[in-house]
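Teaching note: in complex prediction, the entire set of molecules is handled at once rather than each chain in isolation. The prompt given to students was simply: 'Predict the structure of this complex.' The entities are:
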Amino acid sequence: MKYSLTVNGANRTVDVAPDTPLLWVLRDHLELTGTKFGCGIGQCGACTVHLNGVPTRACMTPVSTVGRMKVTTIEGLAPAAGKLHPLQQAWTELDVAQCGYCQPGQLMTAAALLRDNPKPTDEDIDGALAGNICRCGTYTRIRQGIKRAAELTAGGKEAAR
Amino acid sequence: MSATTTPRTVNRRDFLKLTGLAGGGFALAFQIRSARGGATSAGGDFRPNAFIRIAASGAVTIVSKQPEMGQGVKTSLPMIIAEQLEVPWSSVTIEQGDFDEKLYGGQSAGGSRSTPNNYDQFHLLGATVRTMLVEAAARTWKVPAAECRAVEGTVVHSSGKKLGYGALAATAATLEVPAKEAVRLKEPKDFKLLGKRIAQVDTPRIVTGQPLFGLDLRVPGMLYAVYEKCPAFGGKVVSANLDFIKTLPGVKDAFILEGNGKVKELNPGVAIIADSTWAAFSARRQLKVTWDEGKVASESWDTFVAEARAKAAGPGQRTLRRDGDVAQALAGAAKKVSAEYVYPFISHANLEPQNTTAHFREGRLELWSPTQVPANGVAMVTRVLNIPADKITLHLTRAGGGFGRRIGTDYLVEAAAIAQRVPAPVKLTWSREDDLRHDQYRPGGLHFLQGGLDAQGRVTAWKNHFFTFGEGGQPGSGGSLSPDEFPGRWIPNFLAEQTMFDTGWPMGPWRAPGSCVFSWVFHSFIDELAHAAGRDPLEFRLELLGTRDEMPAGGGGGGKGKQGGGYSVARMRNILKFTAEKAGWGKKKFARGSGAGIAFHFSHQGYFAQVAEVTVSKDGQVKVDRFVTGGDVGRQIVNLSGAENQVEGSVVDGLGTLLTQELNIERGRVVQGNFHEYPLIRITDSPAKIETHFLSTDHPTTGIGEPAIPPVAPAVCNAIFAATGKRVRQMPLSRVDLRWS
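The expected output is the structure of the full assembly:
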């Protein structure tokens, strides 16, 4: 089946089985491998993308259900070429990652949190990020990173690369 | 790489080999006498260690040879070279080297060895190149080299004139490499980079989702493979519905591999090759295989535990260590404590499932793999598939977590075996279920302990009947208790005995093998003894460590242990006091339900002590409020951010393992298949506050990926006891009733 998708603002067409999870459409067919495979059952959050701005598990989302919803992946998180999202800036400043495999999912979940709650507390962060596993255990820095991004956003500081 | 070198033997002198680069740059491969063993013999005594490239433009490229799996070596080890080379970090580009031990020297990442194995050599490499650039400038200006110095990628003369490294590269490439004695290392007081917090070099790619990991790899014309193995370890394929599978959409081929009869190498199974990952996954759901499960399918964890309990009071199969007379000391003890400790098998659960991409053509094999020990992978492919090592190219990808799992290379050999049957590059992707059910596990174990105290509350007797699991007559990795493991050697009447269950279950190194569980058992039991003696747990431990500064290895009839030699009691005492001071041990008043616990451990050449502060709710939920670590890994923290991150991660990993992780093995197979059944720690259970402190001591710089993890679980459990009076003797905590009122 042919599907026309809007991914990171661009129209993309793929010809795949209807039950193909969006995760594998992105990774195998659109060469967007920033969205990660970790468990395949929506438990780890490594595959988190935004559908119309809502954090969604791409591994559990058949391509046939995406329709006209706007797909945003980690590759589309930055506001423009050469610019970073405040979260990406904060992650860099604080050296949040260890292996880094889960971080695209953490960032996508955190981006939705910050958009809806510009000044989250630790409890808010824990609540929002509870679905994203970091096997390396960078949770302390993830909390700090989100708070730093909140500062960067509030300060209106240019988050240049 | 655009430049290559051929290793050769040079007698009694470290040397650098120069190779000219197109465009006037120069490259150096560093060769140095092996640090292992004093004597040198012909061949193999010198090994190349790294590459530096300086282009005419001044761009500096450093090749990182070690596999990167989140431990940070792709950043920290090149930092050492850059420091001594005297270049701004922002001007350096890091490239991941392919597997080539003839060129680079050892490329194994395990045992927290990457830093100690390379530290001194990398200093010398950077300093040697800097020395040559200074000499090049001196010759250009016809002035003495002593009047010139290197400053941030340039050489400056005392008159004020300067030249960039790029402008000097061509001249430097014509110079003799100076002897080690002629190279002056930068002093630690002059370090600009080492000890600072530097973000990992892959950070820009990580945060923007650029391809980086093994699973992200794409080769033109690539196909996708899955591989179904017998749920019971070591089982063989009898038949499979291959003809039907081949008719499914996107499927290109399906076939059976026999395996080589070794559960940690090439297992028998069914490969499905498809034109996409999802096509392969989908076809696999319709795969029907008849298995010959074999004899391992009769083995279950519960049966072994029952057998251990039945045999606990009897003698062990082996005596690991015997000092004094334990029976007499226990009989004469003023107080006796006995306890059973048990911990389960667990998985590494790297978040990036195992994978490898392989392309076999015209007798040559090209591989892309997230592996910790690429040499193991190549050797295994050569042994199992009969492909000569010189026909194998192995590219190292970033690994989405290591933790010891990727020391095993079963997934790599699977991909290679599949590729031999496929006329295209093929990427093998394991499912999470494959990963949990075909790991090389940290073995579980049981310890039946008895301790005796004299009237003054000193430990006079310690007896342990340890039950472990093995393969082929030897304990699995991490299932081997060293006769010298603390507190062996410290207690006058000491008996450690072992009984081993020989199984067909695959076991392998799990982050701080052995230490990660023995520290929990022994520091929990030491805490039991401290409380039985009515003593403060810190004071009790300091008294147990004693006043001597060094504890010699061996004794007790057990031979030299793994931890043999060089247990510096002085370093442990110091780090224990230092950590207690940082944590404010003994100064805080805790309400009922809250408390602090302490533990320490020496492993991987690192001395670590930790204090946990916890709160246990009345319904038994544990929250770690604060976790303080003190670590002594020698003189120099290389990358402070990376080192702190490793400790923070170790704290979370040690806590997560304690809280929930458990695999049930029934009839020779792992019951749990995915994270809903095998929950990993989430942010909600991560400590509210993690504090990390390093104590610099006048000792060689050592690694930090593992030694911070062993004391985590006992510190937390000892805090739980302080908070509730409940002693945790079983992992995971989710099985322990901690409710109180």
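Point out the following to students. The two ends of chain A are 40 Å apart (CA to CA). Strands of chain A lie at 2-7, 10-15, 48-51, 54-57, 70-72.
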